[in-house]
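Re-running the complex after MR caught last week's input typo. The corrected sequence lines follow. Everything else is unchanged.
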Amino acid sequence: MTAHILTIGDEILIGQIIDSNSAWMAEQLNLQGIRVTKIISISDTAEAIREALDDSFAKTDLILMTGGLGPTKDDITKKTLAEYYGVGMSFHEASFERLSNMFARWGRATTPAHREQCYMPDNAKILTNKAGTAPGMWFATGGKIAVSMPGVPYEMKYLMEHEVLPLIASTFPGKPIIHRTILTIGEGESRIAHRIQDIEENLPPHIKLAYLPNLGQVRLRLSATGDDLVELKKALDAQVALIETRIPEFIFGYEKDTIEKVMGALLVKNKKTIATAESCTGGLVAHRITSIPGSSTYYEGSVIAYSYKLKEKLLNVSSELLNTHGAVSEQAVKAMLKGLLENLGTDIGIAISGIAGPGGGTPEKPVGTIWIAVGDKNKTNTLKLQLGKSRSNNIKYTATKALDMVRHFLLENA
Amino acid sequence: MTAHILTIGDEILIGQIIDSNSAWMAEQLNLQGIRVTKIISISDTAEAIREALDDSFAKTDLILMTGGLGPTKDDITKKTLAEYYGVGMSFHEASFERLSNMFARWGRATTPAHREQCYMPDNAKILTNKAGTAPGMWFATGGKIAVSMPGVPYEMKYLMEHEVLPLIASTFPGKPIIHRTILTIGEGESRIAHRIQDIEENLPPHIKLAYLPNLGQVRLRLSATGDDLVELKKALDAQVALIETRIPEFIFGYEKDTIEKVMGALLVKNKKTIATAESCTGGLVAHRITSIPGSSTYYEGSVIAYSYKLKEKLLNVSSELLNTHGAVSEQAVKAMLKGLLENLGTDIGIAISGIAGPGGGTPEKPVGTIWIAVGDKNKTNTLKLQLGKSRSNNIKYTATKALDMVRHFLLENA
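Corrected-run output:
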């Protein structure tokens, strides 16, 4: 079973936005055993849409479209689809009611444009979009399926997860492709590949291994295709177990885990609380910790001390220490950690100070010099990073590393 | 003049990587007056490549390809192109010499795979790739151009800038397309459309308007094509000026601005410093402020107080106030702001408290209830948000709104 993904809208064609929707959709379709053979971005004109539908339906039975469903004049996907299928459009009462209720909750009235959004092609199955105002649509004619969704990423994802993927699964029961993903932090792609080289070389032919590196993390994805799901799962489990014996210290989780989620679960398990003192990461560590629902049970708070003054005032770091060793030093992050634990009263703390760049570097401490301290009142682990020149990469990499240091600290001292 | 962009390789089709090359290429082509009418990702099979070339040459005279030029077995683009054009391949001495010299500088020898990379189709103009090992290729037959480049982003960019774009400019002297993007926060797509309806309806035929919404922000993009660049710029400026008069309060910037960048520039201009007290946004506001290089000149730091205890200890909020009104209340964010300004000593502060969800809601204060206070020691603006159930959307939307409130505060009180 194959599919095409069709992205409608000029914003991709003029390079204003990067198409991240298609990659996500392709991944989801793959998990259901559907191979995406083409991803196409076209302009939002009726002619381009009709032509793309004809071209794709000549090659595949399933087209997933995003874009062009908004309430404004440039949004012509719905009208074009009705014309393409030669059907009229009718007012969809249920969609308008949902929309009106939504606006009523916000204390606002709907506009005529919102009413317009609820006229739907007569042959479409309407897919309720609880993440936005434009419903999705499912067209099935002569074994050919076209699905239309909004291009706003979280609306598309909502519709895919709650409506489209379940419908696809029941319409096209495919040959299973299953995946296991092993998540690692702390070692590069080539070194991991070297350590598991013989495992990779001896993989059975129906199992494939891919390395997906990203800023200090490497995901190892094993994929298997075949007829017998039970056998496939067993075969993948055996390979995962083999890999685990080789690189246990780098594996922090599986599948969709994140380091902040794994760290949070470990804190809950060990009944420990945590706080953070950030300088150069500027709140990203706190943001990632608190992005996990329920983090309030173990996360107390954070002090983001960009200036010397705040490091002194909120974290009791002496100006003498700062003047002697500088704010970017092992001494400084240790002192920040000590002050943090004293002032915020948590079991564990993270302290970070560094030069994220692009400015602020010196010959002794160039851009990318970053210190991290993680510990409790008895023990502290410190780490010095020497990263590159990209501010945004330095901040992200450091946050990941700091969260992983907490994981190691909890595993070693539990 | 139009072009298609063709991306070759399975990594995009299985969702392993996001195609960021195409957006960059499209932007560059647009600047040269070449309209990209289709972006296509296909598998790295000879059949898929041949089919895509035929399909695209039926619609356009210019195809830009990336991918499939590496040294491994799955890299078949070059061979397929030679077959497609019915030509042989010859050893390209100059390319091999360049490659050998490059490796000699690194103290390494070339491998047979590198020699293989220097066999080039006989009808190709060879494009020197100083950023990598695989040369680019330019095929011109009967007024139809195909260009093949490596998929590695910095190699593709090198070839585009140094070889491909200059060649395109001399081959197809184009009609310019220019864009202006107006960035707004604070009003939905339909309401903005309603307020500028007559402007949109009266746009001259060579100017197009598109709405690009995303979590509380709407970008309005005006695009114009024509012969006279000066005239086009004037025509777009006039439309931008018209729109500005209708929705001045919502416009925070233009083109690639971000609200955190615009807010930072306003703080610099007004010589003001800022600090943040975050609860439910958990550090995202601080992270966004500090993602801007140079933010240390106006950003002092932040207190992230998740617990009542820290709200009392670090922000001087009385337990009596918290017990009477709750942490999610106008009184609480005002008190947090007051404590923040006292303790951190900045000119301006942001205080946020709310229920991001998915847990923690009550009938009186359901999930998505969030209070923001922005102000200085003399004046405070507060705002209550009633958002949805998605923790991540609630956090992002609130952060955007808070940063925009600072912008408004600075404009009103400067």
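None of the earlier attempt is carried over here. The two ends of chain A are 49 Å apart (CA to CA). Residues 391-413 of chain A form the longest helix (23 residues).
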